Amino acid sequence: MKLALIGEKLGHSLSVPIHRAYFSLSGSQGSYELLELAPDQVKDLRRIMAAKGLDGVNVTIPYKKAVIPLLDQLTPMARRVGAVNTIAWRDGRLVGHNTDAGGFMDMLAFAGIPAAGQGFAVLGASGGAAQAVRAALEQAGARVYPVSRKGPVTYDSLPELDWQVLVNCTPLGMWPNTQAAPVEAAVARRAQALVDLVYNPPVTRFLAMAAPGAKAVNGLYMLVAQAMRAQAFWRDQPVDQAFTRRIYGDMAKEAQG
User: Fold this and answer.
1) Angle at 50 between CA 49 and CA 55, to 5 degrees
2) What average pLDDT does range 129-149 have in this prediction?
3) Residues 6+ away with beta carbon under 8 Å from 30
4) Alpha helices, DSSP H only, in the chain?
5) Which of 17, 152, 163, 181 is an S-S bond match for 119, by CB 3.0 to 4.6 Å?
6) In what order do the strands lie in the sheet with 119-123?
7) Is 9 a catalytic residue?
8) Of 64, 65, 215, 253, which one is the catalytic site residue?
9) Distance CA 219, CA 196 (A)
10) What integer pLDDT is reported at residue 257 of this predicted model?
11) Sequence-separated contacts (24+) of 251-256 with Cβ below 8 Å
12) What is the mean pLDDT of residues 112-132?
């Protein structure tokens, strides 16, 4: 199976080692490459995939919405989220799916953070990752507060809302701008759990603000989980959570040095 990641700038992507680890663990034959596309090249996605003999692709920033008009079909989750991060050929048709939502829920389950009935403040609500997080949480029965700078729920509203978990869906705190954080420490310390989609560095300034006893979870597990869900989609197979846990464990050890 020949696969690739498409995006605009992919120099720091961890997707290649994650998928190579999957091939090794599963005994599957396959390749996975990085394929940088300029904005004016995205419209030629079908031709590019056919010319390179690609069986499927992942899609990352900034093309998760831009690819939608180029596809023949969307899965129910992709339609619900409004963004696509995984594309596969199905009987000559390009089908778009979203594995970020499922990957996020896999991460919560691994961290022991329940969703149903809990309040989640989702920071950076207008982005594609936040849309996947919101869709997943709403489907799981959580109370979701989409927080943005200009939306109906703003950062100034956070002290008045009934939430227990803060989810950072912004890039604030990502290497090399590691001193940035989406909220002040006083807000972060109120949370029973802090969840950051950023995974580099492993402990962001946001996560370092967690109150004693609160859970603090970075985005590495979600990154691996969405990749394993993509492999399952391409192969039309069930997700193997054992692969997710094994690859995450190896990568987490490596990240800690």
Assistant:
1) 65
2) 95
3) 1, 2, 3, 19, 23
4) 15-26, 45-52, 76-81, 100-111, 128-139, 185-188, 205-208, 220-235, 241-255
5) 163
6) 143-147, 119-123, 165-168, 193-196, 215-217
7) no
8) 64
9) 6
10) 63
11) 251/14, 251/17, 251/18, 251/21, 251/220, 251/224, 252/202, 252/220, 255/199, 255/200, 255/202, 255/220, 256/202
12) 92
What pLDDT, on the 0 to 100 scale, is given for residue 13?
86
* Residue 167 · residue 192 · CB < 8 Å: no
Phi, psi of 136 (to 5 degrees): -65, -45
Place of tokens 């963004």: 83
Residue given tokens 């809990």 in the structure block: 118
Q: Which two tokens stand for residue 104?
A: 């996020």
Locate 56 and state its tokens: 């499927």
- Over residues 39-73, the pLDDT tens digits come to 999 999 999 999 999 999 999 989 999 999 999 99
Give me the amino acid identity at 179.
Answer: Q
Does this model's pTM top 0.90?
yes
Q: Write down how long the chain is.
A: 257
